[in-house]
Every structure is written in structure tokens, then in C-alpha cells.
Amino acid sequence: MTTDTNTLETQDKSSPRWTDLRRTLPQVLPRLRDLFVYAIGQVRIYQKIYPGIMHALIFWGVTIQVIGTAINLQQMDLFIPYLELPFPRGTWYLVYELAMDLAGLAILIGVAMAAFRRIVLRPKALETEWDDYYALVILGIIPIIGFTVEATRLIAASPPWAVWSPIGNMYAGVLRNMGVSPEMAFSLRDSLVWFHATIALLLLASIPFTKMRHLFTAPLNILLYPRRKEGTLEKIDDIEETEILGVGKVSEFNSYQLLSFDACTQCGRCEEVCPATISGMTFTPRAILRSLREAMDSSLVYSDENSNAELIGNTIPEDQTWSCTTCGACIYRCPVFINPVDDVIDLRRYQTLSTGKLPKSIADTLRNFERQGNPWGMPPEQRVAWAEGLGIRVLNPGEETDVLLYLGCAAAFDDRNKKVTKSFIRLLQMVDVDFAILGLDETCCGDTARRLGHEYLFQVFAEQNIDIFNQVKFNRIVTQCPHCFNTLKNEYPQLGGNFRVQHYSEYLNELSLHLEINSHDGNGKNPIFTYHDPCYIGRYNQIYSQPRKLLSDAHIKIVEMTPNTENSFCCGGGGGQMWLETEADTRINHQRLNDALQVQSDVVATACPYCLLMFDDAIRSKGIGDQIEVMDISEILEHQLSNSGRDNPQNP
Ligand code: SF4
Ligand code: SF4
Q1: Nearest C-alpha neighbor of 372 from the set 363, 361, 381, 384
Q2: Which residues of the chain have pLDDT under 50?
């Protein structure tokens, strides 16, 4: 396939104005939809039941009270003089009274739940600051005074509809029993109304200076956060010309990022799912965001002595940025769509490209990339040494194939993964797939370099690969590695490379391999299998069912680990973490292996070379190789096929 036919997006030939409009319109509608679903509907907040109910009671209670109060004030001609509101009257007035009463009750229940959670339950991920208490106190006082105002009104006027204000009416009964007469109620009422209004105005005035600012910043963030393809990082345009690479000072973050620091409510949901935090590292995405907001306030609001301080080493400890695996769990959990990965990568870019202050293991890995073009530091001419004698066609410029197999560095240089690649090749050969590889023309996809902050290397690798893809003809690129898959599919379009890319678990589902497999196990054993979702095909690309279907078609039943699918727990290898030296007691792969042991599995099936290595490493360091093993799905399929009597080419 040539450049023209490989390119999926057609060239836009219409006028710039229409082009702009066409590009903007599809963005406006999803943004508005997100605003309704996630800001007003608060769908992500309800993922957790207790805080979800608590937040809904306060949010809807306050919303109804604000609307009701605005109607009430307009009836006093406060906003628009001489505009008499015909609403609410008659039955609607009774409904209005009831709604306002229940809204006040909802706020009180919500505030009580919040106070109970912060003071008694105290979940680990929830940190309480002074403004949390301030918000609770002020939000609690307002409906209490409101009910007092209502009760004195009912005592003073004794209206026939008092039962439509049930809480106010009950409260009025209590006050009457305490000796409050209609005259006393009448005389108290004005002072209470002014007190009520003062506290309400105090709440309004304090919004910008307290966490309550999220009332505005959270919906704004949901409306405005940058929409990029899932799984992609922001490209540095004109990297050769750009003076500041990454972010060294808080003022260098873009406006969207600065808004997100303000929008963060410190709810801790990101922290609850972060594999680095859960595994005991000192890093938490919430703490990073809090530090960045404090730095932003200090620099952009107060302009104090820390205004121009470098973030790394001052606000954020040097080692913190390297703990993130870029697994994306936090992004998908945050109720206001904050993306801590973007911030971490910007900080890494500065460390990698501007200061060069890196942990030794990361510096060594990047040196391997620069010198040998792969993180293993192996001579590039050995990239296809493993393929010798396998009869694999190497595609030369101008030649054509159906499947272009993009192998990636793990398949080429890591001994354990070479075995997986051979299994996959044998599967393709069994069903006579027309496939070929690029041989020595293939270059690292650039995923790890990019996620370690070396955007320049990523762009060089990507451009080399795109150039070679454009010189050959193919119908699709198939990758074994989810990181290569995500990069080729979602990130290469940023550099003009638009190709049809499939992960092998998608592609194998199109073949009829399963028809060759019978349910006979072959050795009389029935091992328990579980499947680990790799983040870069799972969360970032929603490939959940395809690997599971391959296993079930091969008569493999799996028990699911907790968590799984979109909530799955990272293996610890992504974002360059595979190359980072970490403390033995904070290893993410050990944590994930525990999940597999919990369901008493004998075999962990996976579909990613990094996951395979991380599990392998955890199994070996725990010394439980006789209890559990990790296999790639290709290996499992090949095993099932050979047990079914299918021809198995010689293993060279
Ligand atoms: S980033 Fe999102 S999930 Fe994390 S603490 Fe802030 S608001 Fe909560
Ligand atoms: S991407 Fe994963 S490792 Fe990084 S901060 Fe988010 S949850 Fe933690």
C-alpha cells in the first residue's frame, strides 16, 4: 500500500473558514454533552456510592435553593424592577414550598454525611484542610437559619398551607412549644432574614478563596479540557525550534493545565486507583496536583519569593515524576477529567531534555535508545537475528503484503519475548497468512522514549518508521505489543502517519484458528487461568473482549482477577517504569501478582511483552515458579492447537 492509499483521512480541500467550522463543531457537541453528563449529571461521582449520594444531596439541594431564592428575590422586584413574576401561584406555590423545604433537608443530610465521612470514617485517600470544615459549617448553617426564618414566618402568619412546608412546620411546632409567640416571631423575622442573607453572601464571597471554587472550575474543566485521541500525549510542535522543552516553572504549564490545578477538589479518587500509590511509593497524583496548585497560587496569584522557583527539587521532589506508569487509571476515575499524566510528562520532558537530571537507570535506558535504537542496548543489527530459519519474508521498498508485522523491541531483543513471537509466527503460518516484517528497517516505535520525556527521540523514531511504512504496500499493520499498537495507531497520526493498525488479539479473532482446537486438554490437568488486561490495549483502546474471546474459543476458562477490564491494575512496566530501579517493597508487579494468587490461578494469560516480563520478574523474585506461570495468549493458543493434533512447525 502506498502513502496515498495508506492514509485513512482524506485531504481537506475546502476553504479555511469552513474547515475551521467543521473541525470546531464536532468538538462543541461532545463538550456540551460532557458538561451535561459529567458536570450536571455527575456520572463519575456516582461511581462511589456513599460520596456519590452525599454530593448529589448537597449539589441538588443547593441548586434548588439557589433557583428558589432567585425566584423569591425577583418577586420582591430585586433583580428587574417592576417585572412581576407570575410564578409560582396556587398549587405551584405549594410545590415550590415543598421543594424548597426538601432541598434544605437534602443539604443538611448531605453535610452531615460529609462531616461523618471526614471526621469518623476518614478514608485514607481523603485529606481534610481548613476550607473543607469551613464549607461544611457554612453549608450547614445556611439551611438551619433558612428553616428558622420559615418557622417564624409560619408562626407569625399561620397560613393554611403550612403542611406543604413540612420541616419548617415541624420546626415551628417546636418553637411554639418553647414559647415563641406570633408577635415574637414577627419581630425576629427581619433580623433572621438579614443574618441568612449575610451568611449566604459570605459563602458566595469565599468561593474563590476556598475549595468551593470547584463549583465553577470543575464544570469549566469538563467543558474545556483538551480532547485528544485516547492514549496519546501532546506533541511538541517544531521541536527543533522550541526554546522551553517541557515544564520547569509553573507558569510554563498551558492554560488548560493551570485550570485543572484549580479544578482539582483533592477528592483522592485518582490516588485510590494509582498503582504507584497503592504499592507504597511516596508518589500520588493528588499530591502532585496539590503541589502544582500551591505553586500556581504562589507564582501567579501572590507573586511571592517562590514565584520563579524551579518545580523539580523545590515543589516536587526529583524522584517523584518517575513513579507514574502512565497507566491512565487516574484519568478515567477523575470526576472532573483532570489528566495528571500530562503534567508528569511535561515535568519529565524538562528533566530529560533541559536539565538532564535523571535517575541513573532512566539515563542508561535513554542512552541505549540514542546509541542502539532500543532500550535493551543491543546492537541494532541483531534486531532480526531470532527470525533466522523461520522462513519469514522481509518486505523491501515497493513490495506488498497483506499483514505487515511490526515486531517492536521486546520481541526482537528479549529472550522470553522471542519465544512468544515465534509462537505467534507459527500461528500465522498454520493458517497461511500473507505476512512480512520490515527486518532491519524497523525502528523502535518510540513509546518508551516519549513517556520518559524524550519527545525528540520519539519524533525521530516515528518519522523513520512512517517513512519506511510509506515505502511498502500492506493492508494492515499488526503488532504484538500494546505500546507499539497504541503509538502506531493513535500517536503516529500526530506526525502524519495514518495507518490501519491492529493488536494481534484483534487480528487473530478474524482468523479461524479456534475451529482447529478441540476441548481436549492433552495432559489431564485443568490449570486455572486468569487474564491480565494490559493498560495500553485495555483502558486506552477498549480491547477487553477480544483477548478473552480468543481464550474462550480455545476452550480456556478464566477466572477474573479483581480489579479487571477498565479498572484493571497496571503490571508496573509502562511509562518507562520497566527500566526504573525501584525498592523491592514497593514493586507494582508484586502487587498485581498478588491479585492473580488471590484467585488461585496457575497461569496468568496476557497479551503484552511488558506485562509478561513484569509478571515473570515478580514470580521469580517471590520464588513461586512452581506455583504459577505467565504465558502470552499466542503461546496458549499454540499449545491448544498442538494438543488438538494440529500441525506444529518445527521449533527452530
Ligand atoms: S485529580 Fe481528580 S480524582 Fe484526583 S484528587 Fe483531583 S479531582 Fe480528585
Ligand atoms: S497514570 Fe497510573 S501510575 Fe500514573 S498517576 Fe495515574 S494512576 Fe498513577
Answers
A1: 381
A2: 1-13, 649-652
